[in-house]
Design a protein that fits this description.
The complex is a heterodimer of chains A (about 170) and B (about 170). In chain A, about 5% of the residues lie in helices and about 55% in strands. With about 170 residues, chain A is an all-beta fold. Chain B has one helix and eleven strands. The two termini of chain B are about 25 Å apart. In chain B, a hairpin with a 2-residue loop joins strand 7 and strand 8. Chain B is rod-shaped, with a radius of gyration of 25 Å. Classes of the chains: A mainly beta (about 170), B mainly beta (about 170). Strand 1 of chain A pairs antiparallel with strand 1 of chain B, so a sheet runs across the interface.
Chain lengths: ~170, ~170
């Protein structure tokens, strides 16, 4: 991975001074330092910042998976995922499930964010993998936990496999 | 949100000059100012630029929903989203639909860009929510409007609910 290098456009060809307290050619020609923010953050233009730019959360994908086996009208939270956002960010959540009910094929899936439903709707529960509806959460930063809950409509849930994927993209 | 600070590697410990028309310790040690572009743009390396980098479209997300009902052969434009790219970039769209047709048959869903169909695919018509499509498009700089239309060739659409999510970023 290449190091980011910001330098003066003008390159000094003068001999370097022996006085290390002075700015001479080697200090002038040296690569600048990027500071502030934290590892993996990316810079974006921010006219509200004194320097004109801010660090925001770098692109990140997180994935969790979970399986439920038993008999429950409503499963516990599955595929729980905690994201730590170092800035405001968009979190795009995609869900893939494989569901089996004791009776029928109708279930309700809910995507939770910090214990509150973010999206909910009917999904098929016919023992095949399907990609369900997803959700887009516009976050202001901080730590958030997402999970998925399945409720059987036509019968109790006997098996549930849930894969939760989050695409995280920082923003101003 | 932390500010970007780009500084000289060498820190001058000399006393600052009282003549503020001169570059002395304070001017040398101050973080550089970053200009050009517009708020939210992202900085990318570009050896083709005079200064080695350029601003591109930053990450931006949009959501929109819409619904139609009433025994129709085709819905009006639903979940319209207008996006503006400051530079060329990529658009990701997730189209979540719930469609109920009169006979439970599948429906045809179209992603329409600036009035022209750019993707078309079938979706279940049994009233169960599904991601009908997760797709990507490359766009030049400019403003574009995307919307969704659902239709059937036999029977009619009883209800149709669309929830679209779009993320754009530069390249």
């Amino acid at each position: 991975m290449a190091d980011a290098q910001v330098v003066h456009a003008f390159v000094s060809l003068k001999p370097d001074s022996t006085d290390t307290s002075l700015v001479s050619s080697s200090e002038w020609n040296d690569i600048h330092r990027a500071q502030g923010g934290s590892s993996s953050q990316v810079s974006v233009r921010d006219t509200g910042a004194a320097s004109g730019a801010s660090w925001v959360h770098g692109p990140l994908i997180q994935r969790t998976s979970d399986a439920f086996n038993g008999s429950a009208g409503t499963t516990p939270g599955l595929a729980s995922m905690t994201v730590n956002l170092t800035s405001a960010a968009y979190v795009q959540l995609s869900v893939t499930v494989k569901l089996t009910l004791a009776v029928g094929t109708a279930a309700i899936m809910s995507i939770y964010r910090d214990g509150v439903i973010l999206a909910t709707g009917e999904v098929r529960a016919d023992s095949t993998y399907i990609q369900t509806f997803g959700a887009l959460s516009n976050e202001t930063g901080g730590t958030h936990t997402y999970n998925v809950v399945i409720t059987g409509s036509s019968g109790v849930v006997t098996n549930a496999t849930v894969i939760l994927t989050a695409l995280i993209l920082g923003r101003l | 949100m932390a500010e970007v600070e780009i500084t000289h590697a060498f820190v001058s410990t000399k006393a600052d000059s009282p003549d503020n028309s001169l570059v002395s310790a304070n001017e040398w040690n101050a973080p550089l100012l970053i200009g050009g572009g517009s708020p939210g743009n992202a900085l990318v390396r570009d050896p083709g630029q005079p200064h080695g980098g350029r601003w591109t479209q930053g990450v931006q997300a949009y959501t929109a929903g819409g619904s139609a009902s009433g025994g129709i052969g085709s819905t009006p434009a639903l979940a319209a989203i207008t996006v503006t790219f400051a530079s060329s970039g990529t658009l990701l769209i997730a189209v979540n639909v719930v469609i109920t047709t009169s006979a439970g048959q599948s429906a045809l869903v179209s992603i329409v860009r600036n009035g022209s169909v750019v993707r078309q695919f079938s979706a279940r018509g049994d009233g169960i929510a599904t991601v009908a499509r997760f797709d990507t498009f490359s766009e030049p700089a400019g403003t574009f409007t995307y919307h969704i239309v659902a239709s059937v060739t036999t029977g009619s659409i009883t209800t149709c609910t669309v929830d679209s999510q779009i993320i754009i970023f530069g390249n």
